[in-house]
Each structure stands twice: as structure tokens, then as C-alpha cells.
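@here heads up, posting the sequence + SMILES for the ribose-5-phosphate run so it's all in one place. Ping me if the SMILES looks off, I pulled it from an old spreadsheet.
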Amino acid sequence: MNIKKLAAEKAVDWVEDGMMVGLGTGSTAAYAIEKIGERVKQGLHIRAVATSVQSENLARKWSIPIIPFAEVGEIDLTIDGADEVDPDLNLIKGGGGALLREKIVAARSRQVMIITGENKVVQKLGAFPLPVEVVTFAHEWTIEKLASFGCKPVLRQTKEGDVFKTDNGNYTVDCHFDVIEDAVRLHHQLNNVPGIVDNGLFIHMASAVVVAYESGIIEVLRAPSRR
Ligand SMILES: O=C[C@H](O)[C@H](O)[C@H](O)COP(=O)(O)O
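bot reply: prediction finished. Complex C-alpha cells:
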């Protein structure tokens, strides 16, 4: 059972004619982009904004009209993956290196629909290393500061062994916490550190999470009406 594809295709049912759609990043979001592409071929009219160069390229391949950020007003619906989801629908994102654009797009979206398999739903966030986007200048100091929050910070590298750079030209530090006791507090603390651009905690941003199970069942978890 391809649970990523199952969740992604279910979420695309929420895409309607005329919408401005935010396209997420990662292997799960890629299934959603392909499904949207199929619907565009069948006559669906939407405009879209992408959260990474990778997703933009995939969308263009499927002839999904991509609008530059500067021309986008409000986004009706964003569909994106996640690395972990907790019972309050708080998330860890950024495993694919796109957290900053994803967070900007999510913040401009009326609805943020997260698509995931059952394996990513957890009681407490933190088993997945928290990605933190940092500026390259003095990143060694920023990494030292990250360690003071009780994690083991690891500067992300590419498969080739180079330092990984985000689409924004920054570095990513993967912070191994094992468990994050207070995600809301940590989110604010991290974003107060000079040198940190943003972190992969998405607090109260998801409107709903589509969870696909190996059994083929799909569950839609909805956030309290805060968005
Ligand atoms: O930066 C990447 C994104 O936050 C992804 O949505 C996240 O890492 C999940 O990716 P995947 O669907 O490939 O597991």
C-alpha cells in the first residue's frame, strides 16, 4: 500500500476550480502535485505557488500555472507533507530542506492541509531531528547555541558530502532532541536566536491532516477552528 499516495490523492479532492493553491515539497507532496496535474489536464483551472524549486519544476512539467510570490494574494489551500504530526496537529517539517518557503506559504494560506502516513503521527514531537535553517555567517556559533537547548545539532550535508544549501542559500542544522517536551516554547526560543532564520516546528498552522493507514483507511484530523 502506497500510503503517501493515498493521503495525497485524497487531499486533492479539496482542490476546486478557480483556487490559488500552495504546492508543498517532498515525496508525499509530489504525489499531490502529480494528481493536481492530472486534473489540470482534464480541465481544472487553478493557479499555484510552489514551496521549492523542486516542486515548481514538477508543477511546470504537469503544466500547472505557477505564479510568482510577488503576485500572489491570499492562498486558498496549501497541500504539504510533514515529518511528524502530534495530537494538536503541530508539526515537524523541513526534512526535505524546504521549511522556510513552506512556512511562508502556509502563513499566507486560508487552509493548510497536511498529508501523511500513519507512521508519522506521534504523541510527542522530536524523534525526527528538528531541521533549523541558519544563515551561513557565523553558523558555527549558531550551532553552539543550538546545542545549549539540549539537542545534538548536525550540519546537514548532501549525499556527495558537501554542505547542503537551501533554496534561500542558507544552511540546515538537524537537531536531535529525541523528544521535545514543549514545542510551542522551543519554537519561540529558537526563533529568538540571531543567526536562525526559522525552524521546522509548525505550531497551530495545519487546518487538517489527512492520515493514510496501511489498511487503506484514510482519516482526516481537523484542527480546532483557529484558521
Ligand atoms: O522540507 C520538506 C518538507 O517539509 C516535507 O514536506 C517533509 O520533509 C516530508 O517529506 P516526505 O513527504 O518526503 O516524507
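MO: The first helix runs from residue 3 to 11.
MO: One more: The mean pLDDT is 97.
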